[in-house]
Queue: 2 jobs
Job 1
Amino acid sequence: MDQENQVQIRELAQKYSDKELIAVLGSADPEMAVIAAETVSGGNLTFIDPFAEAQLGLKAYHIVELKEFIDPQVYLRHMEMIEIILDISRIIREVSNVRKRFFTSEVSV
Amino acid sequence: MKYPVIKGTGYALIQTPGLLLQQVNLEGSSLRHLLADQLRSFESVVRYPPNQVFIGNLLPEELPNIPRPWYNSLLPNAKRQGHFGEIFPEDEFLGLLNAVDVYGLVCLEAGFKQAVFQKLRSHPALFMLKGITMDRNNRFSYEEIEEMIKTREALPLTFEGRIIGCVRKANVSDSTLAASRVLENLTAKASAVVALQLLLWKTGLRPQEVDYIIEASEEACGDIRQKGGGSFAKSIAEACSCSNASGADTRAFCAAPVHALMQGAALVQSGIFKNVIVVAGGCSAKLGLNAGIHLKQEMPVLEDMLGAFAFHISENDGINPILRTDLIGRMSVGCGDSPQQVYRSLVAEPLTKGGYKILDIDRYAAELVNPEIIEPTGCGDIAKSNYKMIAALGVLNREIDRTEIDKQIHRFGVPGFAPNQGHIPSGVPYIGPARDLILQNKMKQVMIIGKGSLFLGKLTRLYDAISLILQRNPRLNTEITLD
């Protein structure tokens, strides 16, 4: 996640409450997804300045966790191919673990 | 259709640890002293397997057989001269910076300049450069150089830790012409000149036969009123004595080289020009880009290299591989940016149009950055990520069985070996090996893919991608094999 994106996310998080906002991740790599999830949940984990003091407290979901909320045709058009190479179960496990770590009341979707 | 051909290639690598430390300083990083201890020797750079691939002494396909980390698997008896190009040390490059500078902005100490020009005069490809044969007698003492650095905002140039020159700013008040920008732009120019000069020398193409040059780096030269005005292309043509050539610059971030190849091919096929050169030099701002991460991983600082390439596109000679100008894959504005849509446009559509399947392509070459450089940043093996998408597209099209994804990626994916991120790795480092393998009838066709992060410029949130196919010349008798 580049610095400018982080600045934008921080501004949105400050403007809207965490009840109105979630972060949706698209990384194909579970480790990168975890880093991004930790960054928006907890703050300065990517060693980039804008988040140094901020605790954004945003919940992050990977797009594959939100499949049931998306029109199946739209989801297929964008995701059918990449699902072939994604380690979906690992992504869901690791990203939901980040939520459980930062938000004690969290349950998996 | 009279497709144009890739008639020749030239590749150069230049080790510039001094420019790397300069770049780190300019960025205000505190890593300078740590980095200075982790810099590689020129010998280890020459013996580094991915660098030997870049200059054509080793095939990229051989890299996976060499144990990682490659910086611990240095090759014995490696040479700086290669089949496609050469690896240069920093002192020779600083001499070249001076030789291609027509405004007297690169000032070298007299003794250093004399020694390095002597080396350049004995180089078979570089001795004939105008800046070497017609040396302007601008030599400086250490005292004069120190004075310019202290009082006139000149940037020091160092070799092996010692200040041996400086770069002056080109205008009193214009930040676009500050010493740092002058150095960045002359670095791109000088390294491109090396690649083109190597191409001319290796292929026998005479400079005056070159009609047009398209430069495809990621730099912008101009002044405060026209910051990216250009033209690197014409300045490179001038430096290489291409007296009948003109040219212009093409920009599309890391995708630019493939756009430039397509444009060059179109100029030749339409009959506008006979001999077009696509060229790009290296980017000093990318030196040591991930050096902090490499230091943390206790790795050597691998991003100490500038890469450069030059390609000669010419009329169909019945021998050299053709550029299939009718099968260009591209990412239009309306294409969207999910991988599925992108790879359909980029790979499936041109293949379908040509009557080919995914597995008919012998090799795909995309984003060929060396994985050893990029994996520690957490981005994974970028080249391989592209090939996974192509394999997944094959599964979706029922051409590849899901259980065969890894096997197919290994077969058709060209491993990364380019020295940094950016325009240099954008598929085109494989054109040299591909041309040879196709001429030797070991392969039929290769797809070269360029991808560019347009969003970095903040004018659009889009990125870009373009592909083209290099194919065995159908007029070439299959019984003839060429070395």
Job 2
Amino acid sequence: MSANTIAISEVPVHPLSLRLHEWVTTVDHKRLGVLYIVYALVFLALGGIEATIMRVQLIRPHNAFISPQVFNRMFTMHGTTMIFFVAMPMVFGFANYLVPLMIGARDMAFPRLNAFSFWMTALGGLLLYFSFFGGDGLYGAGSAPDVGWFAYAPLTAKTFSVGHSTDFWTLSLLSSGIGSIGTAINIIATILCMRCPGMTLGKMPLLVWLNLVMAGLVILAVSPLSAAQLMLVADRYLGGHFFDTQAGGSAVIWMHFFWIFGHPEVYVLVLPAFAFASEIIPVFSRKAIFGYPAMVLATIAIGFIGMSVWAHHMFTVGMSAGANAFFVLSTMAIAVPTGIKIFNWLATMWGGKIRFATPMLFCVAFLFQFLIAGLTGVTLAVAPLDWQLSNSYYVVAHFHYVIVGGILFCIFAAFYYWFPKFSGEMYNEALGKLHFWLFVIGFHLTFDFMHVPGILGMPRRIYTYEPGRGWDMWNLIVTIGVVFQAAGILVFAANLVWSYFCGKRAGNDPWDAWTLEWSTNSPPPEYNYAKVPIVRSRRPLWDLKHPEDPDWRYE
Amino acid sequence: MSPTNIFAPVSTPAESIFGLSVFVFSTMAGIFVVVFALLAYAVVKFRSQGSHGTEPAQIYGSTQVELAWTVIPVLIVVALFLAAARVIGSVQNQPRPQNAIEVVVTGHQYWWEYRYPRFNIVTANELHVPVSNPAHPTPTFLTLLSADTDHSFWVPRLGGKTDLIPNHPNQMWIDPHETGVFLGQCAQYCGTQHAKMLLRVYVQPREEFDRWVREQQQLAQTPESAGKRVFESTACVNCHSISGTPAKGRFGPDLTHLMSRDTIAAGAASNTPDTLSLWIRNPDAIKPGSKMPAMGLSDQDASTVAAYLETLR
């Protein structure tokens, strides 16, 4: 390993302007990965502020903190921001940074496409937020989009959405969609073509497998979304009649287009979260992942089944009994491979020696929370129950359980786990644990209790509600939880900044881990590996550390 | 006790959903307890004792165990699917009996229009239906239309929700077994005032319902008045209908029997002289963003119009 090592002091330090120029023009997968992640963190703050504004408004019935017009913009911007400009860039950022390192490559297959994709995504986010200033257009109506993040037709038609707020929304998703597809192609090409000698498909780390399936889903899911955005532009400006019901178009076609994107999108986000858990849980349990082939097969199964469940978002739109039954079955079927994954992580911990450093804490909380998210997901898959619960706060609680309790917890785990690799510095463990506990408390206060008003008949997307429905106390508790979550995020941000400037040196392999990225410097040099590594098993560093008992004897 | 609790059903569709939900939730609770216990046991039992020593035994997998936790979930999924399919069929494929009440519900930004084609009645926001005796059911079948954007009809104690989508007529039915007022609201985001597009369903004994029908079938009794003249000479008539008068607008709610309703503005305010007068003067004070414009009437004209509307019984 020492052949790979270069002393940090040899890296030249340039003036600030030159360094900024390097960041803007970079095609290095690690720098682009960091750009994606930092960009996602900025939007996480914006989306979080929007959520907080909504929760203040809903703290009691008939509250007048903001107007209905502002509230409707807040939930539209919150949803769009969190999905397209937080979760997606975060996922792509980690994939960009980690995939080439983990397969022993020196960069992505198409570095310039990589930069192009990032900047298209960045443009999308800027367009979306420029709507606050530019959305008025000529008509003096509205600023930011207020059509909801799934923007059902015909609310997006010119008749109902005057001005340009919807256009900013459309162009923003079109632009970031091009970036997403570019990055997905890049990830697939990199994984299929750039693996180091010895790394057959069956010896790839699970993170790489999961990102391969994720990238495939991005191509299949984002393409129809982009097509639908172009059709919407045609409707609004070119006399198209795809979704314009007043001209004979179909509102239901938009729903199909949106959800054939929207549901695979959930797996686009959750598979990378699974990927983080699949790397972190083994290392902190000190055991190899249990059932690697089953994990790979379950991932592929989720990818395939995930493409055939979209209309479970549409159980209330009046599909036939047969169609409803089909989507009940396909949706429930996905619980099987997902269950396999949870059981395999459990079996990985079983008989291990579990160290509860911050990354593992977040992963363990993820396991408990994702269990609940999956089970409420099955209740919503039961179409008749969905007729009651669809578009209620129960659904809002369910998908935040998936996205926050599942995906965001794994992203935090990934931050703490790879921060030493990305920055070369160790994060502060006490602050990390404080962040964890604040966030766990805040998450459960907010999203556990949010299920209840849904069961009591509270629909989502209402800027205020009537007293006497039995919703008041639950909404108060939900809002209180936000305080803890916000405090947790502040601790997290402080930890990152403080550790970056004042942290202890982490060394190359602080976790005694097993995948290739831990064999190079922290942070890795531009070319990743001075000598391209050669691997013989799924855990090359285990083999190095245990020459008497290497993995390749058993695989 | 919440008046919109899905677990307090009083109508067959809501009851069959409730029965199914008991089965589904208890199955989920069972799975939760088992997996939670296993996870908690692993977390407590296998925590590292003291500092880093030797590595634990490396176990790469087990085909038998993998098969077990694949087959058991498959069986659970099959059971849940069959239970769900049964309820889907029983609710969606329910034949419409001859004596069913028919109502055409049209969603508007941000209010509900009800037409009873057999009775030749038009009303708004407050749906009246007869109670249905389980021995001799008189269900109400709703045809769901939309005049503008998507809406969704949801009265949790009576049944699940069904969307109202332009160019896409939908159907649903209810057969309430209890009399009373059942609350709900629009459940599909439809624009600025989605939050105050409230639903009230009045379930009445049959005789009372029949009396209500006869009253609604009457033309408005409208002797000449100052308020009537103001109403009919301003833009009010462009949007509102009052049967037997020149007011024939269809954009807003029919006002022929306005005073037979407990609420105005789709349930956003109770129907009192004060709120009615405020609604005419400044609708945004009650429901900002509603499609009802402030008419710019003088205070005196607004009062006379309110007085006229209060005669519409």
